[in-house]
Amino acid sequence: MEWTGIILAGGRSSRMGTNKAVLPIDGQPVIERLACELQKATDEVVISCGPSARYAELGLPLRQDIYSGCGPLAGLHAGLAASARKWCLVVSCDMPFANAALFRYMAELAQMLEEQRRGHGEPMEVVIPYVGGRAQPLLAMYRHSVLPELERALGEGLLRVNYWISGLPAKYISGEELSQASGLPAELVVFNMNRPEDYRIAQLYAEQQNLGQRNC
What range(s) does the MobA-like NTP transferase domain occupy (predicted)? Predict the structure, then answer.
């Protein structure tokens, strides 16, 4: 099954105090690391870059927000709207430990859901990890058919990501599945860097896991 990888990189990084997408992990910017991992799993990767045109040096298509100032949902919308494929995988630029093995597993689940849909099964529209009692909507696969509902939410100013996904039929991935698929602890896979102390923790994790071996 063909699918599009979307890196969400349009945030302001206000809590970090600097652009977290370009912070190095093992000497490689996080956004470059994620692009490499996605390219191992799919042939179409785009960057949803918010209102700016940053990251041109990565040589990937850039998609600016259509609904400016509306947060992660606007970034997801820009990526989905630019794709002609039935499924898209979105990953936030501050999740340095998401990897190709996990992306492939999520795509396999999405393909299984498509086959079930053709067999008149329940029409699931999201594949999403659920770890530590929390869904992870910024590391998930979305069916392109969610786009009209997403546009409705944006048009009405309903911008909370978790509120929006709560109304979508979803296939949840447990922490155990996540760990088996990625080869990493589930909590590490969904770890995101919002503050400087998170970045320091990420650097320590990377050293412990020797993640540099996964670089492109």
Answer: 5-157
